[in-house]
Amino acid sequence: MTWEIQGKSSDWYEFPNPEQERVFCMDAKKVVYYMGTKENVDNRKLKNILCAGGTHFERGFSSEIFNIWDGQGFGISHIIPNQWLVSGEYENESGLEKLRTCVGSIEGGVQGIAMHDGLKGAYKQQLRNLGEELGIPVFKHQFLRKPESIQWTK
């Protein structure tokens, strides 16, 4: 069986034996469960985050799912890479609607929006507009490293 770990064929991986694949599948199932629920298997409260900018599976976002504070953790629900924002013309009104649809697809919604530093102003403004609409904080991705400093509203 072939697994796509990121987003292009060079990232596909063939497991050398079925036992390694079985272990990967079990761990992947735990990660999906952990990221898709408000209370995970460790009874931590999850703060679902919409991440925008950077590359697909940007490490500044994806590595923070392991950050735990005060019995809480992150659910990195979606990472919208910079190239998708640009090609999808998210700077237009239709882009704001796409962001609303994205958040609407996340069970329980999101409690914050993290944006990558390299994001252009028009995209940052759309994210700020969405955050204001939802009443949630919008912050630079570096704040994911110090979540206690985020002004959570939900």
Written overview of the protein:
The protein has 154 residues and is α/β, with parallel strands linked by helices. The protein has a single domain, classed as 3-Layer(aba) Sandwich (Rossmann fold). It is 35% helix and 21% strand. It contains 5 helices and 7 strands, in the order ββαβαββααβαβ. The chain has helices at residues 18-35, 59-62, 82-87, 93-104, 121-134, and strands spanning 2-4, 12-14, 45-52, 68-69, 72-80, 112-115, 138-140. Strands 4-5-3-6-7 form a 5-stranded mixed sheet. It starts with a strand and ends in a 14-residue tail after the last strand. Mean pLDDT is 77; it is low at 1-9 and 27-41.
In a nutshell, what does this entry contain?
With 154 residues, the chain is an alpha/beta fold. The protein has helices at residues 18-35, 59-62, 82-87, 93-104, 121-134; strands spanning 2-4, 12-14, 45-52, 68-69, 72-80, 112-115, 138-140.
Provide a count of the helices: 5
Assign an overall shape.
globular
Low-confidence stretches are 1-9, 27-41
Q: Give me the strand/helix succession.
A: EEHEHEEHHEHE
Number of domains: 1
Radius of gyration: 16 Å
Which class of secondary structure composition applies to the elements?
alpha/beta
